[in-house]
Amino acid sequence: MRHSTASPRSRSGGKFARRAGLLLLGLALWGCDRPAEPVDHLEVAARSIQAGALSADGRWALVGSGNHGGSLWRVDDGERLFNWNHKADTSTLILSASFSTDARYALTTDERTLVLWNRETGAAEQYWSSPAGIVMAQLGADGEHALLALEDYRAALYNVRRGGIIRNFHHSDHVSAIAMSEHRAVTGSDAGTATLWNLDTGEVIVSRQHDAPVQAVAIAPQGDRILSAARYEPPQVWSAEGELLWELPLPEERVRRGARVSLARFSDDGGWLLTGQPTGRVDLWDVDNRTLAYSWQLPKRKAFHPKAVAVLALAFTEDPNRYRAISSDGFVYELGY
Predict the structure, then answer these.
(1) Per the domain annotation, does 290 fall within a domain?
(2) Sheet harboring 134-139: ordered strands across?
């Protein structure tokens, strides 16, 4: 994948430059409603993929394809490094994938098993069977714990090094979305609840109620800002005390028609937010100033194909002018301005 020749800037310096230059751009894009196109792309699957993850810095991509199974990619030079499947000589239908914060480890899951991989060696370090069907999973910062959404109305903090559940987080309906920071987790449910949990004690810190099933959640690395998004409602950004900080200003007409955010990722400092939609739209939000900064539209593999391309993963990069996204039709896109 090609990159700008400009030297990367620090995150703090980049934030200042981004804020200074993007506010008018965001307003212009919002007014004309013409998101920008990606600046580059890397094909990681010949057809569609059902799961994808990007490391926190966007350098590594992990995808699960029905045709090719799991694979790890180094995005900078487009090299496929390892094939990761749960059984030898078999392509696994990987349903979720994630990286540890430092990208040294990765986790893949299918319906009933989870595998911890060493990103540097490509070796599978642990293989476990889940106590219930796995809806989705996220690997923790240290590569030792994972948060699982299970089919039996609970989320579970799982020890992927030694095996076994450390703590359960029970819900009254299906767990539909999960995210975690070092000491906190947020879960969304089909009952419309978005709940912030203390991972160390298992206690509820705060819970918010939506009028529809929650379809996406995100938490800032510090655990102090949370996003929850339900269909037919504007996505909400709120504090760890439960205070509503901001409702993302998606066009009301589109929200009524079902436009929604399906995934989100905060920047390292929590001041910026990337959101993705099932339509292939990616938005960059300035949370501190409560503005839309920029928007992109991921293209379809075939323009005439009736099915929209969904956004499966998002990442900030070391260059504050560049972001990355994985699409459901098998590409890692570089987004810039």
Answers:
(1) yes
(2) 134-139, 145-150, 154-159, 165-170
Question: What sign has the CA pseudo-torsion 172, 148, 146, 158?
Answer: positive
d(CA 72, CA 58): 13
Q: pLDDT tens, 284-309?
A: 999 999 999 999 999 998 877 767 89
Asked if residue 53 belongs to a domain, the reply is yes
Pair 319, 57: CB distance under 8 Å = no
Q: Which domain holds residue 41?
A: 11-336
CATH code of residue 315: 2.130.10.10
Note whether residue 5 is domain-resident: no
Q: In what order do the strands lie in the sheet with 96-99?
A: 96-99, 105-109, 113-118, 124-129
What does the DSSP 8-state code read for residue 104? S
Decide if 14 contacts 6 (C-beta within 8 A).
Answer: no
Amino acid identity of residue 274, one-letter, is L
b/e code 178-187 from CB counts within 10 Å (16+ = b) = bbbbeebbbb
Beta strands 165-170 and 96-99, pairing class: unpaired
Q: Is residue 3 part of a domain?
A: no
Total count of domains within the chain? 1
pTM of structure: 0.90
